[in-house]
Amino acid sequence: MALLEVDKLVAGYHKNVVLNDVSLQIEPGEFVALIGHNGAGKTTLLNSVFGILRAREGRVRFGDRAIDGSVPAANVARGMALVPQERAVFANLNVRDNLDLASITLTDRHAAHHRIEAVEHLFPILRQRAAQLAGTLSGGEQRMLAVGIALMLAPRLLMLDEPSLGLAPLVVRDLMERIREVNREQGTAILLVEQNVRAALANASRVYVMKLGRIVYDGLPDPLHDKSRLMELF
Questions:
Q1: Whole-model pTM?
Q2: CATH class belonging to 4-88+156-233
Q3: Can you give the residue ranges of every domain in the chain?
C-alpha cells in the first residue's frame, strides 16, 4: 500500500484553478522529488496534501485513511510533516527552545530528549548554537533548524518546499546529504519540492515533473539528466 496517494486533485485560489487532475503516489521510505518551473503548482500541491488548502476535487489518502478535507494538525498526528519555503522557526526563541516547543505534544519527556539528541546529531551546528536566538542564525542554519523541528514529530512522510532556496551551493549540498540520511537511516519517506533541478535529480529515487498545474513526467531521474529532455518537459 502506498504511503501517500493523490488521485485527480483539483485545487486553486478563489476563481483561479492551479492544479488540474494531479495524481501521484509515494511508497513507504521512498525519496521522491517534484520539480517544475516557478508557478507550476508545486507549493499548491503540498498545501493541498497537508490540509492548508482545501482541494476542490480529487482524493488524498495517507496510509489506509482518506485525508482529503483533514486539517494540518490531524495530518501531523497521522505522521506527516511539512517544512515550508519560509524560515519556519520561532525567531525570538533560542535553538533549543525551538526544538523543545516542537515536542510539546509528547507526554514522554525521555522520548522528547532522545529526539532532540537525534536532531543535534544530524545537524551538529544546532548543538553549538543551542543558546542562540533562531532569528540570528544564518539562512542555512535556520533551514536546518526548520527541518529539525519537523523531525521532532518523527514523521513517516517529510515534505520539503524548496529547502535550497537562497542558500549557497555548499550549504545546499550539506543539507541534501542530511535529508538523504534521514531517508536512509530512519526510513522516512521524502517528498522534495525543488527548483534546483540538479539537487533534486542527485538525491531522489523517483521524480515527478509538474508543468502548468499538471504532472507531465513520472519516472526515474536518469533520463532527466538529458538537458534537451528537460527543456522539452519544462
A1: 0.93
A2: alpha beta
A3: 4-88+156-233
